Amino acid sequence: MKIGDRIVYPMHGAGEVVGVEENEVGGVTSSYYILSLSMGNLKLMLPVDKIEEIGLRDIIDKSQIPAVEKVLSGRAERMLGSWNKRYHATVDRMKTGDILEVAAVARNLSRQHKKRKISSGERRLMELARQILISELVYVFDKPPEDVITWVDNCIDKKLDDEDEIILED
User: Fold this and answer.
1) Residue from 16, 107, 4, 29 nearest 56 by CA
2) Is pTM, for the whole model, over 0.90?
3) Strand, coil or helix: what is 163?
4) How far, in Å, CA of 15 to CA of 34, rounded?
């Protein structure tokens, strides 16, 4: 990894490596990548020796956009069970860092929210999933966030011939 690389940090979104710094924490000096996230003007320090554990990955290639569009416009999935169980299953999906999983979470929660109000916790997850997805697609499309938000919303709002949800039981 080097300065200028665009990467995705699971549960935070996409950003650019803007530097490498040495810092002392607890008496131990370590190297850290400085990651500037594309959404929210946030800078993160990521320990160089823990990059594999953290799950950083490169942003997707433009050739993967049709797969993202297919997920966003695909049939929604609705999980059954308690709010707590659904919440943890959704968080686990997002922690994978896989853009298709994050897109599915954004689609599922967005569509559920339009049909009936979702809980405040699920609404926060919906907003986080959308932010993570949009932050990466801003780099992929090389367009401003407003354009990417419109594209994501249009994909999610596409009407299917068979509007039924897939119900997942745990």
Assistant:
1) 16
2) no
3) coil
4) 10
